[in-house]
Amino acid sequence: MDGDAVYLQPAFVLQHRPYRETSVLLDVLTRDFGLVPILAKGVRKPKSKTAGLLMPFSALKLSYVGKHELKILADAEYVDSYPLQSLALYCGFYVNELVGIFVHKADPQPGIFALYIRCLHELSAAQNIEQTLRYFELDLLQEAGYAVDLAYDADGEPIAAGRRYNFVADYGIKQADGGAVGGDTLALLAGRSELPAPALAEAKALLRKMLDVHLQGRHLRSRAVLAKIIKRL
User: For the chain, which has fewer Cβ within 10 Å, the N-terminal or C-terminal residue?
Assistant: First the structure.
């Protein structure tokens, strides 16, 4: 490989889709180069041994080349996998879609890469799945530079357990009678503590509002699918 090559880069496939007769287009989260689009040529041929590696939720080391934005896969090595089943699988697709939005091309985000691995590990354990998602969303916003202070409200007053609050875009947490989230829930989130059912419900609504500010009207397909799956359970 030449000077435009990247060797054995730790990576995860976020999405893959067929390209022409025998190839696959990949959206790849890398540790050192952010989001990288990669063309895997010929991997859909019957004798290809690479196609089975290029799946979501598998830790890989990828080597690729190219002077342009779209890179060409040269080699793929398997490192580890995080088997997700049932609800955890759909949550994984949701996480992948979020990461694909908040991480940009050629924008290294090693903190998000590490956060992603931790989230997959917790999802694969299939315990406290909803809490895992809430803290992933919260930490993703922080790593992407969109953290909201959960210890103090927008007026600089400490969050109080007995009060109610709302999230207001461009301001943060504001005290409001009858607000959507309690101070006790905010304190639990700030401390990354165990979330009981009422706090989980408030945290879900709060984090959706926070995320939607930065999604700017973008529709998450995985969010809609996940909502339908949860209703069936």
Answer: C
